[in-house]
Amino acid sequence: MIPDDYFRYVLPHKPANNGDVVYFPYWRFKGMLFFCGPHKVDERYVDISQQAIRNHNFPFSVGIRSQAMKIQFVTPDSVGRFLKPVIEHQQIFGDFEKRFGRNIARPILHQAHIGETLSLIYAPFFIRDKLYDAVLDKPVSEMSIENLDLADYTETDPRGHIRFVSTLCPHCGWDLDGERDALVLRCKNCQSTWYPVGRKLKQLKFARMAHGDADAVYLPFWRIRADISGIELKSYADLIKVANLPKAVQEDWHRTAFRFWVPAFKVRPRIFLRLAGQVTVVQPRDELVSRIPDSRIHPSNLPVAEAIESLKLILAGLIKPRKTLADKLAAINVDAKSVALIYFPFKEAHVEYIQPDYQIALNKNVLSLSRNL
Ligand SMILES: [Zn+2]
C-alpha cells in the first residue's frame, strides 16, 4: 500500500459506538533529528501528535496511544464522520530547531531530519451530555462542552488516498517477497529487487556479500556514490586523509571510489549514525554477487531518500581532526548519484548480531524494537 501523500489512520473503538462517532484529526510526526555541532552530534527521536483543528474540548494530542494501540489504516470500508484538518502540518512541525533544539549546544553546524513520516490520525469521539472518548468509552473531562457545535466543522472523506501496488514481479510475474513494513520487494525467481517509485515498482540494483555463512542474518545497507564538493573525497585514499586514519595508502586506493554506506533499516538515531560511520569508514570491498540471500533478511524499511538526507551528517562524523569541522562543513555539498542495496551478512550471537569481518555489533533487542520507529 502506498499513500498519495501520507497515511491516514483511525484509532479503533468498540463497535457499540459506531452510530454517531465523529473522527477528530491529529497530525503525527515521527523521525530522527540530528544536530551537528563542532564537537559532537546530538540526536532526538521524535514521535509527536497535535490537533489538526484547534479546539479545547478535544485532547491536545493523541498521547501515547499512537504507540500503545494498534492503529488501523483508513480504508474504503471505514465509516463515520471525519472532520477536515484546518491547521497545516507545516504550522505545527515547521521549526524543529526551535521546538527540540532548545537544549542543544550552539553553534549548530548542520541539521538533518531522517526517516521522517507524517501521518494523520483520526481519533473517535461521540457527544452525549459531555464529549466522550470512544476508545475509552469515557468522558474526555467532567466539564460540559463549551461552544462545540460539530456542524461548524467541515467534513472530509479520507478514504481513497491509498494505492495498492501489485506484488507480482514486473519481470517474470512471480510473487515478490517482502515483509509488511518493507520498501524493497524481492523476486527469488528472476533474482531481482524492486522499489516503489510513484505508482510503479522500479528495478533496484542490489547485491550481497559473496562469503556469508548459510545461517547468516542479512542486514541491508544503501551504498551510495555521491559527488562531493568543498572537500577532496573521491577515493578511498582521500578518505584516509579526511578521516586521518592510521593507514599507509596503497596505490590502488586512489582508484577505489569512495562510497557512503547507510543502514537501509530503521534503528534508533544514535545507532543509525554509528553503523553508517562504522561501515563507511571501512569502505567494504568484498566480493559481491547479485543473488538474494537464502537465509534471513532484515526488511529494508528506511527510504533511500532518507538515507541520502544523512550523507552530509555521516561525512561530518568522518572529518578529523574534529576542530577543523566548523571551518569545513559549511562549504561541503553532497549530491547523491547512484544507489545500490547491499545485503551484509551478520552472525547471530546471544544478544547481538555481529559482522565478523569488520567487528560491527548490533544489539538484537534494539533492532527488533526498531521495527516500530
Ligand atoms: Zn521475477
Count of beta strands: 21
Distance between the termini: 18 Å
Q: Which class do the helix and strand fractions yield?
A: alpha+beta
Task: Please tell me what the overall shape is.
Answer: globular
Major sheet summary line: 9 strands, mixed
Number of separate structural domains? 2
**What level of helicity do the residues show?**
10-25%
DSSP strand content = 25-35%
What is the mean pLDDT?
90
Bound molecules: zinc ion
Poorly predicted parts: none
**How much is the radius of gyration in Å?**
24 Å
Number of helices: 9
Pattern of helices and strands: EEEEHEEHHEEEEEEEEEEHEHEHHHEEEH
Can you give a write-up of this model?
This protein has helices at 65-68, 89-93, 96-100, 236-242, 269-282, 304-309, 311-318, 325-329, 364-369, and strands at residues 2-3, 7-10, 22-36, 41-51, 72-73, 81-83, 110-127, 131-133, 138-139, 155-156, 162-163, 185-187, 192-197, 200-204, 206-209, 217-229, 260-263, 288-289, 333-348, 352-355, 360-363. By secondary structure, it is of the alpha+beta class. It has two domains: 2-163, no CATH class; 205-372, no CATH class. The strands form four sheets. Strands 2, 3, 4, 5, 6, 7, 8, 9 and 10 form a nine-stranded mixed β-sheet that branches. Helix 5 (269-282) packs across helix 7 (311-318). The longest helix is centred in the C-terminal third of the chain and has 14 residues, at 269-282. The radius of gyration is 24 Å and the shape is globular. The site of zinc ion has 8 residues, from loops.
